[in-house]
Amino acid sequence: MTNPSTDNTLLNQELVAPVSIRLLADLMLENGLFLATAESCTGGMIAAACTDLAGSSAWFERGFVTYSNAAKTGLLGVDAALIAEHGAVSEQVARAMAFGAIRHSHAQVSVAVTGVAGPSGGSLEKPVGMVWFGFSVNGMLTSEVMQFDGDRASVRAATVRHALQRLVSLLG
Hints:
Blueprint: H1 4-15, H2 21-30, E1 35-39, H3 45-51, E2 60-65, H4 69-76, H5 80-86, H6 91-103, E3 109-115, E4 130-137, E5 140-147, H7 152-171
Helix pairs in contact: 2-7
């Protein structure tokens, strides 16, 4: 019988193999910064990858899992009208989530993800694998969209990897 907690840690380490959580940690610590995550389609996987590193409490402040629209509004302050107008999977909502994570935490850096992980839920305008990212670094808000291939697990894993790699590049 395997130990589920060991298996989860190994899975999280495999998810971020291309990016060094240690490098992200070092950049955060060198700059005296704290990170908050706001996650929809990844359901807390980015926060889990960060907190798999011992000592992450020195730079990881908190994670918001905002899978539902009500959670995006209630926990992050995303305007319900913004979601109604643009949809949860949109640049506007990703940016509002990143801003909300900063506003509702003590962090100076945030990453937000909202997307369609599949296997259902996609459309012509927002296909399965489309993920919007929002980043806030010391008051500078940026966003980008990625289209990932594969099944639900692959899309979510790629989202975690990209979020962490982009944080490293923004901080580096």
